[in-house]
Every structure is written in C-alpha cells, then in structure tokens.
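Duplicate of #3305? Posting structure anyway:
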C-alpha cells in the first residue's frame, strides 16, 4: 500500500463543500468516486481543509491509500479524465504513511476577493463578493492587523463546536501570522495565513472588517470583539463565493 498526495484546484460553486454527505455532491465524494473507478478500491480521501459549500481552492491537499501499482505521475492524467472540469488534479506524489494533509499542516493561507466597481462582469460574479458601496479601505487595513498573533477566535467561529475541532483539541485559539487587505485593480483582497481556521472564521472576519469599512465599527473594536468571545459581537458571514484556499504549508 502507498499513500498518494494530491494537490487539487476546484470551483466550489456547484458543490456542497469538501466533506462527503448523503444526497449531496461534494468534492471529497466526487474524488473518492473517481479514485474508485481507477483502482477498484473503496477509499475516502482526506483533505487539508473542509471548505464550505461554494468555496473554491487553488491548492487543496488530499491523500488516500492505495494498492494500485500505477505510476504516481499517471494519477494526474487518469483522475482528470474522470473528474468534472470544475475539479482538477494539479500534482500527485507518494508520501509517508504517517503524513496527514490536515494534521501535518504547519499553516494555511486563504484569500477573499471583493469586487469594488459599480458593475460586476457576469463571468466573475460567482468568484467574488460584489460590494460597490463606499468603504474606508485604510480602516480595514488597520483592523486586519489586529488579529495577528495567538487569539481565541470564538467571536469569529460558526456556532457548531463539532466543526471547530482540529487534531482532537476543542480549542478556539488559533495563531495568525499574516492578515492584510490590499488593492488589486478593481478588487479589494484579503489574505490571511495561520496555523488553522475555525468553521466560517475567514468569512466572519471579512464580514466584520466590512463593518469597519462602512464605519459601523472602528478598527479598535476588533480587539474588543476578540476579547468578548461571543459570535453575536462580530459581523455577518461574508458570501462563500469570494473565498479561496490558496496554500497549505508542511
């Protein structure tokens, strides 16, 4: 038996997230079916992050164990011939049996895209949050920096404790190494890198930063919201379509 590591890119719009679930099309389920058609094995690939319905990925990492003798480099072509066009295997390699895409990760990076022009082109609408209204972008930049460090992110976590468990630890403390907004043409882009993320955490951060941009909150309120450890103190969850898992570090 070998353990194969895949790097995946996908458009999450038409999927109910990563995690397999009954009567729903998911990335994990779609990938498992494709692997089974090739190897004849019943496998459930493990992923680095359980992206939600509508969330995209440039570099999701997944692994599965197989006894199939096919050369590892051929898995890329074989899987891409079966998978829908919205899911692509970008790379494949053999890794140690004790490697786990989530538990072995040292950090993850997400990006969130907000389209700022008055009219959003229809071919971008599924991949950004169209927000053409006034925002104090410098205030949002200031606010983003306040979440860097080790914090309890309960205020920015979805209220579903079972989804917030990582590596068996029921803690909402996460370490954020980088958190910043930048202008990229007509888009305002949030990039955040951390040890791990709670369910909806990035989208809840974005929704709260937008309240800072609107003037509803001040940048200093971010620290108070963190300290409150109360989901009701933070902003609404930003739409899924603007979020991307862009990298996993090992």
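Output from current build:
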């Amino acid at each position: 038996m070998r353990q194969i590591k895949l790097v995946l890119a996908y458009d999450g719009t038409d999927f109910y997230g990563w995690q397999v679930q009954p009567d729903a099309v998911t990335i994990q389920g779609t990938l498992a079916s494709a692997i089974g058609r090739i190897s004849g094995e019943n496998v459930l690939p493990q992923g680095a992050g359980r992206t939600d319905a509508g969330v995209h990925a440039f570099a999701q990492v997944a692994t599965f164990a197989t006894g199939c003798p096919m050369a590892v480099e051929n898995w890329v072509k074989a899987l891409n011939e079966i998978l829908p066009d919205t899911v692509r295997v970008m790379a494949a390699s053999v890794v140690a049996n004790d490697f786990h895409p989530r538990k072995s990760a040292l950090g993850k990076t997400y990006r969130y895209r907000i389209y700022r022009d008055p009219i959003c082109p229809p071919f971008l609408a599924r991949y950004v949050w169209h927000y053409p209204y006034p925002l104090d972008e410098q205030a949002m930049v200031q606010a983003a920096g306040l979440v860097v460090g080790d914090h309890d992110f309960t205020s920015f976590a979805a209220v579903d404790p079972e989804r917030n468990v990582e590596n068996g630890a029921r803690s909402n403390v996460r370490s954020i190494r980088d958190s910043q907004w930048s202008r990229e043409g007509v888009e305002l882009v949030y990039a955040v890198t951390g040890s791990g993320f709670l369910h909806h955490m990035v989208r809840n951060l974005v929704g709260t930063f937008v309240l800072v941009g609107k003037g509803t909150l001040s940048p200093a309120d971010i620290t108070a919201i963190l300290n409150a450890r109360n989901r009701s103190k933070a902003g609404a969850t930003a739409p899924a379509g603007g979020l991307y898992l862009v990298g996993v570090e090992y």
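Confirmed duplicate; merging threads. The two ends are 22 Å apart (CA to CA). The first strand starts at residue 2 and ends at 10.
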